[in-house]
C-alpha cells in the first residue's frame, strides 16, 4: 500500500474518503509501525515506506488542527507513534496543545508529546515538552495527570521508578469517574478495566502496590472487577504478592456483585494451597447460586467448590458428588487452555469437572460410589472417558471401581476408557487381563493401550512387547508408546538399539521419552542424563515448556546419576517468578507441579 500514500490528497482527505469517520482508520493504516514495531525482526517494512511517509508527514501534521476532534485525536496518536524525529513533530504537537480546548483530545496530545520527545533528534523543543509534562502532574483534571505520568514514564530512563514515585497520582486518576474519558481517545479507546491494565504496565515486577491500591473499596462494580483482574494478573506471574493480596481478595467474597464474588473465589482457587487458611470464608459461598453473565453459566458456588478442591478441603465433596450425578454446573465440559507465560492478564475460568476430581485422590473413597454409578454402558461416551481418566489418576485408590470397569471392557465403544483406568489402578485390575490381551492381539487403534494396560494389571511381558516395541520405535509419533515401553524395564532391552537411535530426534518429546526409556531398559544413565538436562536447561532462566515437567521427573527416577541437574536447577526453588506455559488456573498449577518435581529431584539427586 505504500505506493498509494503519494496518491492521497491529504488536504482533501474527507472528500476522498467519504466522511470524517473514515479518516482515523486511514491514518492508522498509513502511518506504519512505531519504533518498537520497526525493531521487531518479524515486521518487514517496504523499503519505500519510510521516505514516502517522511515526505508526507508535514501534510499529516496539518490534520492536528482539523475541525473534527476525532481527526485531531487520530492525528495526534499517529504522529506520536510514528518513527518521525521529535524535531519534526514536537513543534506541531505543541501548537496544537496550545490551541486545543477539548479534554479528550488533550489526553491524546499529552501521550503523543511523551512519545515524540524521545525520538532523536528531539530538537530544541524537548526541554519545553518536559517542563509542560511535569506541570501537568498538578493539573486539576485527574486524567491529564494520568496522561502526564504515562508520558513522563515513556520519556524517562528509569520508568518503573518514575511511576512508583507517582503512585498516588495514578491511583487517584484511575479510580476517578472521569477515567471513562479514555474510552473516547484514539490512543487508548478503553474504559475502566482497559485503563487499569494499560496503567499496570507502568509498574513492572512483583510489587503489589498498584494492585493493592485498586483493591481498596470502590462504589463502581467495574472498578472492583478490574482490581481483581489486576491482582490475578500479578499473582499469575509472581508468587510473593500473595501474602499481601490474598486478604484483600478474601474481603471481596461478600461483595454485592456476583462477578466480583465469583472472581474472588476463582482467584483463591488458583492460589490453592497458599490460600488454604481462608477455606472457611470460601465455604460460606457453597450455597451461593448466583450466576455469571457468561456463556458457561458458572455460579459463585461452582467457584467455591473449585477453590475448596484446590485446598484439598473435604467440604467440596458433597457438591462435587452432586455434579457428577448430573446436577447442572458451570464447570467446563472439556479441558481448555488459555493465555501464556508472557501474558500478565488472568483469564478467570473453571476447569472441566474431571480435572477437579483428578486432584482429589485423598477423597477417592467418598467419591467412588457416585462415579461408579455413571460408568454404565448407556452413559455419554465422553463423560465415561473423563471419569475413567480420574480413576487412572487416583491409581490404586480407585480399586473399588474395578467391577464396573471390567464390564466396560466388553463395550466396543467404551473399552478404551476402561483400559486407561485399569492401567492406572494396576494389579487390582488383574481380572481384566485376558480381555485386555485379546484387545491388544486384535490390532487396531487401541492395541497399544490394551497391551500397556495388560502389562500394568499383571500380564506377561511378551505379548505387551509384541505391540509396544514396534509402536515405540517405528511409529510416526512415538513418544506416547516410548513412555509405555519404559514401564516394561529390562524386558524391553532388545529394543535398546532402536531407542538409542531416537536420542537425536527433532521433537523434544521424543528425545525426552527415548532418553527415559533407554535408561529404563538398560540402566544407561550416562547417555540419558545429558539429553534430559539439555531439555530442561532453559528452566534455569525461567523458560518453561510442557515437556520439561516429565523430563524433570525422569531425572528424579535416575537418582544420584542426575546430580548435574542439581547445579543447573538448584536456584529454581528460590525464584519468585511463576514458571508456566499456559494461562488461567493452569499457570498456578503448572508452577506448583514443576516446583514439587524440582524439589524431589534435588532431594533425590544431591
Features:
single chain, mainly alpha, 35 helices, 606 residues, disordered N terminus
Overview of the structural elements:
By secondary structure, the chain is mostly helical. 58% of the residues lie in helices and 0% in strands. The radius of gyration is 30 Å and the shape is elongated.
Write the layout of secondary structure elements.
Elements: H1 2-5, H2 13-16, H3 22-30, H4 35-38, H5 49-61, H6 69-81, H7 86-99, H8 103-116, H9 126-136, H10 142-155, H11 159-164, H12 167-174, H13 192-200, H14 209-215, H15 221-237, H16 242-250, H17 258-271, H18 279-283, H19 300-310, H20 317-325, H21 353-357, H22 364-373, H23 381-394, H24 402-408, H25 415-425, H26 433-441, H27 447-456, H28 461-474, H29 479-486, H30 496-500, H31 508-522, H32 525-536, H33 548-557, H34 564-569, H35 585-605
Low-pLDDT residue spans: 1-20, 34-43
| Tally of helical runs | 35
What's the N-to-C terminus distance? 61 Å
Overall shape: it is: elongated
- The radius of gyration is 30 Å
Assembly type of the shown chains?
Answer: single chain
Helicity, as a percent range: 55-70%
Strand-residue proportion: under 5%
Average pLDDT value?
A: 91
Structural class: mainly alpha
Number of strands: 0
Largest sheet: none
Summarize the structure.
The protein is 58% helix and 0% strand.
Amino acid at each position: 500500500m505504500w505506493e498509494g500514500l503519494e496518491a492521497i490528497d491529504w488536504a482533501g482527505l474527507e472528500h476522498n474518503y467519504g466522511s470524517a469517520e473514515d479518516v482515523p482508520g486511514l491514518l492508522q493504516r498509513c502511518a506504519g509501525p512505531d519504533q518498537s514495531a520497526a525493531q521487531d525482526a518479524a515486521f518487514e517494512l517496504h523499503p519505500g515506506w519510510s521516505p514516502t511517509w517522511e515526505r508526507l508527514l508535514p501534510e499529516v501534521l496539518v490534520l492536528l488542527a482539523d475541525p473534527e476532534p476525532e481527526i485531531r485525536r487520530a492525528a495526534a496518536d499517529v504522529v506520536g507513534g510514528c518513527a518521525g524525529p521529535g524535531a519534526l513533530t514536537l513543534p506541531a504537537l505543541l501548537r496544537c496543545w496550545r490551541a486545543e480546548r477539548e479534554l479528550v483530545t488533550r489526553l491524546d496530545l499529552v501521550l503523543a508529546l511523551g512519545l515524540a520527545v524521545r525520538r532523536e533528534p528531539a530538537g530544541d523543543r524537548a526541554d519545553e515538552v518536559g517542563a509542560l509534562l511535569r506541570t501537568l502532574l498538578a493539573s486539576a483534571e485527574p486524567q491529564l495527570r494520568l496522561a502526564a505520568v504515562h508520558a513522563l514514564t515513556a520519556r524517562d530512563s528509569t520508568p518503573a521508578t518514575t511511576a512508583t514515585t507517582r503512585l498516588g497520582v495514578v491511583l487517584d486518576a484511575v479510580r476517578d469517574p472521569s477515567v471513562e474519558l479514555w474510552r473516547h481517545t484514539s490512543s487508548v479507546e478503553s474504559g475502566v478495566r482497559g485503563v487499569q491494565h494499560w496503567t499496570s504496565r507502568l509498574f513492572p515486577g512483583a510489587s503489589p502496590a498498584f494492585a493493592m491500591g485498586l483493591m481498596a473499596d470502590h462504589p463502581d462494580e467495574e472498578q472492583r472487577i478490574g482490581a481483581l483482574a489486576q491482582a490475578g494478573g500479578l499473582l499469575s506471574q509472581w508468587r510473593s504478592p500473595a501474602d499481601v493480596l490474598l486478604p484483600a481478595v478474601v474481603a471481596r467474597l461478600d461483595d454485592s456483585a456476583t462477578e466480583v464474588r465469583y472472581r474472588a473465589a476463582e482467584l483463591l482457587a488458583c492460589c490453592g494451597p497458599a490460600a488454604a487458611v481462608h477455606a472457611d470464608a470460601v465455604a460460606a459461598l457453597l450455597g451461593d447460586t448466583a450466576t455469571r453473565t457468561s456463556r458457561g453459566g458458572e455460579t459463585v458456588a461452582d467457584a467455591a467448590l473449585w477453590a475448596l478442591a484446590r485446598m484439598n478441603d473435604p467440604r467440596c465433596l458433597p457438591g462435587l458428588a452432586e455434579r457428577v450425578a448430573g446436577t447442572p454446573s458451570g464447570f467446563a465440559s472439556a479441558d481448555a487452555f488459555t493465555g501464556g507465560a508472557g501474558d500478565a492478564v488472568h483469564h478467570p475460568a473453571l476447569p472441566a469437572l474431571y480435572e477437579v476430581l483428578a486432584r482429589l485422590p485423598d477423597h477417592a473413597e467418598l467419591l467412588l460410589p457416585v462415579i461408579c454409578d455413571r460408568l454404565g454402558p448407556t452413559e455419554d461416551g465422553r463423560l465415561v472417558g473423563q471419569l475413567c481418566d480420574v480413576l487412572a489418576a487416583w491409581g490404586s485408590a480407585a480399586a473399588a471401581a474395578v467391577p464396573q470397569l471390567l464390564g466396560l471392557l466388553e463395550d466396543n465403544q467404551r473399552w478404551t476408557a476402561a483400559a486407561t483406568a485399569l492401567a492406572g489402578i494396576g494389579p487390582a485390575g488383574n481380572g481384566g487381563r485376558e480381555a485386555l490381551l485379546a484387545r491388544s492381539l486384535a490390532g487396531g487403534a487401541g492395541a497399544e493401550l490394551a497391551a500397556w494396560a495388560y502389562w500394568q494389571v499383571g500380564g506377561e511381558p511378551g505379548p505387551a512387547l509384541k505391540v509396544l516395541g514396534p509402536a515405540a520405535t517405528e511409529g510416526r509419533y512415538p513418544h506416547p508408546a516410548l513412555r509405555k515401553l519404559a514401564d516394561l524395564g529390562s524386558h524391553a532391552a532388545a529394543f535398546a538399539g532402536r531407542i538409542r537411535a531416537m536420542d537425536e530426534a527433532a521433537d523434544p518429546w521424543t528425545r525426552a521419552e527415548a532418553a527415559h526409556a533407554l535408561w529404563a531398559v538398560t540402566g544407561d544413565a550416562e547417555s540419558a542424563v545429558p539429553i534430559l538436562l539439555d531439555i530442561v536447561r532453559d528452566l534455569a532462566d525461567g523458560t518453561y515448556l510442557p515437556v520439561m515437567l516429565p523430563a524433570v521427573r525422569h531425572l528424579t527416577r535416575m537418582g544420584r546419576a542426575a546430580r548435574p541437574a542439581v547445579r543447573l536447577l538448584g536456584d529454581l526453588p528460590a525464584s519468585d517468578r511463576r514458571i508456566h506455559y499456559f494461562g488461567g488456573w493452569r499457570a498456578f498449577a503448572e508452577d506448583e507441579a514443576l516446583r514439587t518435581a524440582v524439589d524431589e529431584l534435588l532431594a533425590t539427586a544431591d
